[in-house]
Design goal:
Oligomer: single chain
CATH topology of the domain at 96-240: Rossmann fold
Distance between the termini: 95 Å
Strand content: 5-15%
CATH architecture of the domain at 96-240: 3-Layer(aba) Sandwich
CATH superfamily of the domain at 96-240: P-loop containing nucleotide triphosphate hydrolases
Length: about 850
């Protein structure tokens, strides 16, 4: 078979491969769809859109989420396992008991049993986390909602309250607003254990008052602000271990009895470290490494082939061999070398010495942790960052040496380790390592297989990499900041969907600052939009308005129509929630939502939240202007005037703010002037249209023997005017006057058209045998409200508003209208004059307006 000219299908030739090679018959590979998540925050529906920006609107009827329900014990246990740090892979650290903590343990348990709150004060490394674990195990069955473990590391009171609600109540894709959150927390009864608390004072009082049925066990350092004087919190001080307990802890950490030299060295270390348990855990790791170095391998492994192939020797095996050698047991394969004890300084600050004896993967993981400010990535990310498939075991090595401590669902460098490593040059090329971590997280968070919960669990390391890239220097500063923008753009939607809104806000602010420094206006507009949406959910409408206006302005410059529409919708919702439209009550029907925004549920507009949620960081551009005492107008273009109200006459007495014309008509100066001018223009146009219709014929042969109520009978008719026929309909011209209207449109002998006739010639129809259409009042203007005598003073004509094509002399001298800037006197709202009637000029001149039968001269304008 010829491969160039294959035969037909009847010979068994399959064309699927050829079509696939030519692109036919194979569906095109579609790009991954954006991950759009819908959340409910209070009465608002938030649609997290990673492309154009999140959209927020009132939750439509029928889409309300179900009410939160209490979690079952099994669900609470599963949630507790999800928030606990993972078990590190690699060599396991020796299990150490809790020594000399029985008194504090019983005291804390007694306080919680009485339903009161306790605050544990201890220095970093004093064993606070271990004591909290023991007390939480003792109080497992104390409260109906069990024990809830929370982390206060970089958390605000609002974030802790939301995490408490999520741990006890099952409400997927829901984040209640502040009012709803406080209502639901009142029914929760649990023992809440908060480690690494970072706030006190009024913020701590707010946390305790929000959950009155919960007993809080708080752990904080000495530098943490103290509670207020009247806070219902009992403080318990956690001191260091005694000398005997410290030596016992060191022996348990080493796994063998201490020698006399080691005992003396441990005594000096106890005096230097004030008995902190962390120092003796690290000292035990130093002694285990020393034992391993003292044991010489067998002759066939003199070059370290086994260690190169299978990794480091098990520390337990080396310790057992050393213990046997210390006991005087002769082993031909064991030869001890002289390794001196660490110095007292190395024992008090052992991080650098411990790190020098670890594997290359563990040392590289430490350098990444130093670059991230102490945050350690999850062990699943270490192989990709380090470049070693077995790098996940480095986490176990670091934990066994006491260089890491658990913080919430993750690990970070233990107290004092970061400072010690920085002193030994572990921050070399830290910016490049942070850039590597940021690139990895930018790819990982944007991957469709990564759930929002997993991204929220990595929020601390992700934010650390993001903030480390912004203050860049040198040639790589622009590249690092561009990567920061990319990471914030990918992580912000994931953090929002994972309901970790504190991290969402920090990512948005860091991304906005990086985009401003790099000049990426489109990305900066996106971050401003997201910050505005977040401020709406938090109830801070002033900040939301500022952020959204900045975003709309930037997107308008870029001609981003979709983004501008999303921003204007959010801004309209801000105007609705701010209460500007409800500043004055309407007497008519219900007000329609502004700018096409769906109306909120309920009889009245939803008021603003009683207290905005606090933010975690200030705006990069400075603080937002403080909210004024008066309500902010909903229309920024007319910020100097209040809302224009249309009400029935007599409602001004009911509203104290609208008294007289100054408060009613001229209350909004600029807006009311526009409304008055538009009304005058509308009346003039309508009068012109009606007069044109009255003066033009309808193309039919009219009957000339018909008499109307405001005109005389035709001379050719019967003259009685009682033929029994009905008068013409309103707005229809008199058929009998069609021909005369045509003759009357011609110029008069005096040179002026019919439009210049004085009102005195049209007030009495009996003075002329056949009045012209311009002399006959229009029927569509309606009867006058009252009868007034004809004016006695000479009438004047209104000067033309536009220059006529051929000006002609007039028999009367025109008098220009006088205008006054002072407000008109207070008069009744009901007008006493008819609307002016405008007739078209027959000679191309200016239009003349005939005044009604009132004291106002024809052609004069109403006061502005």
């Amino acid at each position: 078979m010829d491969p160039i000219n294959p035969g037909s299908e009847e010979y068994g030739h399959d064309t699927e491969g050829e079509e696939a090679r030519q692109g036919r018959g194979v569906p095109a590979q579609t790009p991954a769809r954006a991950r759009v998540v819908k959340l409910v925050s209070g009465e608002l529906l938030l649609t997290v859109n990673p492309v154009d920006g999140s959209e927020i609107e009132p939750c439509p009827p029928g889409q309300e989420p179900p009410a939160p329900r209490p979690r079952t014990p099994e669900e609470r246990a599963e949630a507790a396992r999800a928030t606990a740090p993972p078990v590190p892979s690699g060599p396991a650290a020796p299990a150490l008991p809790l020594l000399e903590r029985q008194e504090e343990r019983e005291r804390l348990g007694g306080i919680l049993t009485r339903g009161r709150c306790a605050r544990l004060i201890g220095s970093p490394g004093s064993g606070r986390t271990a004591l909290l674990d023991a007390v939480a195990a003792d109080c497992a069955d104390l409260a109906p909602d069990g024990v809830v473990r929370l982390s206060g590391h970089h958390r605000t009171p609002t974030e802790l309250l939301h995490e408490l609600f999520t741990a006890v109540r099952y409400a997927p894709d829901q984040r209640p607003d502040r009012t709803g959150l406080l209502d639901r927390l009142r029914d929760i009864g649990a023992v809440v254990v908060v480690d690494d608390l970072e706030f006190g004072g009024a913020s701590l009082d707010e946390l305790l008052a929000a959950a009155p049925e919960c007993a809080f066990l708080l752990a904080a350092g000495p530098e943490t602000p103290a509670p207020s004087a009247d806070a219902p919190v009992e403080e318990v001080l956690l001191a260091g271990l005694g000398r005997g307990a410290a030596l016992e802890l060191l022996a348990l950490a080493v796994g063998r009895p201490l020698t006399e030299d080691e005992t003396n060295w441990a005594g000096d270390l106890w005096f230097e470290s004030e008995g902190l348990p962390l120092r003796f855990v690290q000292a035990g790791a130093l002694l285990r490494q020393r034992d391993r170095l003292r044991v010489t391998p067998a002759e066939f492994d003199a070059f370290g082939a086994l260690e190169e192939a299978f990794g480091p020797t098990d520390p337990a095996v080396a310790a057992a061999a050393a213990a046997a050698a210390f006991d005087g047991v002769e082993d031909p394969d064991v030869e001890l070398r002289e390794i001196p004890l660490p110095s007292l300084g190395e024992g008090a600050a052992p991080a650098a010495l411990l790190a020098s004896r670890l594997s290359r993967s563990a040392q590289t993981a430490l350098r990444f942790a130093v670059a991230l400010g102490g945050e350690v990535p999850h062990q699943a990310h270490l192989p990709a960052l380090v470049g070693d498939t077995h790098a996940d075991a480095a986490l176990g090595e670091l934990m066994a040496c006491g260089l890491l401590s658990p913080v919430g669902p993750r690990y970070r460098l233990a107290a004092g380790v970061l400072t010690q490593l920085l002193a030994h040059g572990y921050d070399h090329e830290a910016a490049d390592r942070a850039h590597t971590v940021a690139q990895h997280y930018a790819w990982w968070t944007a991957h469709p297989s990564v759930t929002p919960d997993r991204a929220a669990a990595e929020a601390d390391a992700l934010l650390a990499a993001l903030t480390a890239l912004i203050p860049g220097t040198g040639d790589t500063a622009a590249e690092h900041r561009a990567t920061a923008v990319l990471l914030a753009r990918a992580a912000a939607p994931a953090l929002a969907a994972g309901l970790h809104w504190g991290a969402w806000e920090r990512a948005l602010r860091a991304g906005q600052e990086a985009a401003r420094l790099t000049g990426e206006v489109a990305e900066e507009a996106y971050f401003h939009h997201e910050l505005g949406v977040l401020a709406i959910c938090a109830g801070n409408l002033e900040r939301a308005r500022a952020e959204l206006e900045a975003s709309i302005g930037m997107r308008g410059v870029l001609a981003d129509k979709r983004g501008t529409v999303a921003g204007r919708r959010a801004l309209a919702l801000v105007a609705d929630l701010s209460g500007a439209h409800a500043a004055a009550p309407r007497t008519e029907g219900p007000a329609s939502p502004p700018l096409g925004t769906p109306a909120l549920r309920g009889p009245a507009a939803r008021p603003a939240l009683p207290r905005p949620e606090p933010v975690t960081a200030p705006l990069p551009g400075g603080p937002v202007r403080p909210a004024a005492s008066a309500p902010v107008p909903a229309f920024p273009g007319f910020a100097d005037a209040g809302p224009t109200l249309v009400a029935r006459p007599g409602t001004a007495e009911k509203d104290p703010r609208r008294t007289g014309l100054k408060g009613g008509i001229l209350g909004g100066a600029r807006r009311n002037l526009v409304a008055v001018g538009a009304g005058a223009l509308l009346v003039a146009v309508l009068g012109t249209v009606v007069t044109l219709g009255a003066t033009s014929g309808n193309g039919e042969t009219p009957a000339t023997d018909r008499v109307t109520s405001d005109s005389t009978a035709d001379e050719s008719g019967t003259g009685d005017g009682l033929d029994g026929e009905e008068p013409p309909a309103e707005g229809e011209a008199d058929p009998g006057e069609t021909g005369k209207a045509t003759r009357s449109d011609s110029p008069s002998p005096s040179g002026s058209g019919s439009g210049s006739a004085s009102p005195s010639t049209s007030t009495d129809p009996s003075t002329s045998g056949s009045p012209s259409p311009s002399d006959t009042p229009s029927e569509t203007t309606g009867p006058p409200t009252e009868t007034t005598p004809p004016p006695t003073r000479p009438t004047t004509t209104r000067p033309p508003t536009t220059a006529p094509s051929s000006p002609k002399p007039s028999s009367t001298t025109p008098k220009p209208p006088t205008t006054s800037s002072s407000p008109p006197p207070t008069t009744p709202a009901t007008p006493t004059t008819e609307p002016p009637t405008t007739t078209p000029p027959s000679d191309g001149g200016a239009t003349t307006t005939l005044g009604a039968s009132s004291g106002t001269p024809a052609g004069s304008e109403p006061p502005a």
